[in-house]
Amino acid sequence: MRLLTLTEAKLLMREPLALFWGLAFPMVLLAVMGLSSATMDGLSLAAVYEPIVIAFISVVFGVQGLPVQLASYREQRILRRLATTPAGPVRVIGAQLAVSLTVVLAATAGVLAVGRLGFAVPLPRQPAGFAVAAVLAATAMLGLGLLIAALAPTARSAGAAGTVLFFPLMYFAGLWTPQLSPTARHIGEFTPLGAATQALRDAMAGSWPHPVPLIVLGACTLACSVTAARLFRWE
Amino acid sequence: MTAIEVERLRKQYGAKVAVDDVSFTVAEGEIFGLLGRNGAGKSSTVDCVAGLRAPDHGRIRVAGLDPRRDQRELRHLLGVQLQESALPGKLTVAEAMRLYASFYRSPADTAGLLDMLDLTEKRNSRYRGLSGGQKQRLSIALALIGRPRIAILDELTTGLDPVARRDTWEFVDNIRNQGVTIMLVTHFMTEAERLCDRVAILDRGRLAAIGTPAQLARPTLEDTFVALTAGRR
Lengths: 235, 233
Hints:
The structure holds two protein chains of two kinds.
Chain A: H1 2-13, H2 16-35, E1 39-40, E2 43-44, H3 45-75, H4 78-83, H5 90-119, H6 127-151, H7 155-173, H8 182-188, H9 192-205, H10 211-231
Antiparallel strand pairs in A: 1-2
Chain B: E1 2-13, E2 16-27, E3 31-36, H1 42-49, E4 57-62, H2 71-77, E5 78-81, H3 93-101, H4 110-116, H5 132-144, E6 150-154, H6 162-177, E7 181-186, H7 189-195, E8 198-203, E9 206-211, H8 213-216, H9 221-229
């Protein structure tokens, strides 16, 4: 299992496009916001965007990267080939999840560092609460990615599903308009990334995240992965 | 000692019957050929023997194990080379070998295997940069890396040039001489004649003939094959 995970990690490192969108672009986005002198509710734009950018990272790896990778493993008969070995196909999915989660958390730490060092955004004042929210945001998006991988017949359709889902997910995270209307914000609290940004923002400001968004993220993780496990098409 | 036993195997997908009442046995150390046109039921038979699919009816034993119930144990004893070899394009030959070796209890020496299959100088090449013959040889190497007692080789030489095909045949002979039982799926009659101790010809899911290539040659194996499987489709 260790070598399998290491191998998947190496393979990810050989995908420059995935690394750009998942690792470099979020930092660039934060930097662009950081260059603006505008403020919102007394916060700098960089501080406002930090949770949004962190949500973005989990979408890139969870909803866009993971399902395409797994669907292409199925399409190229890699899962089937593994099914004839003692390792079996489930472990490669486990390895993918482990690698994705690690990279998401590393990219999140990178964004926090850029925000702190480059634009004087304070580090989360409630670190434990922040860590819980960040991990749950990542698992919710990886769960959703698994569900796409389970249902999409091809890598192409998995990619299309990921792209379609990107917009509503990130809309409620506030990517285009950080200050959503009260109605939109209310709906957003019950979408995974609306909940994620809310929870991350609370923790950054210093309070433990409200239980509702954490429950939304936990429920999304659980519901998606259980459904994915039941419906996964191996061929 | 019997390596593979297939007794009255039946497999259907919806209303389509892929394999119908097929029985054969493969003795230990034998090279057994499974012949048939496309869609004759070869792949479904292989899938059931390898435990990838459950038969709808019939009994299968591989090295005395039930491929579905004893899947875990069987994976260590049975090496499978699937029709289209399947690896991530950016994985190198050496990485693939090391990874697959890590799956097994007592793997073969990867360097020796690469050497035997003439892949040593390609060890740092990525899978997608390999030629058809090199990919094929790598997939054979991966099927053998767990030092299996039984190997299934599916469409082993499809897409290979004549020289590469002959090299592969020689290699298969060598593995058999090391005591590995081989089930070879092919639609090249010369390949079956050259390698197989016995062959079974499948036609539309049913067993049309079984015997040594010499027994079935009337006057050649190919004539028999065409006579048994042509037309009516």
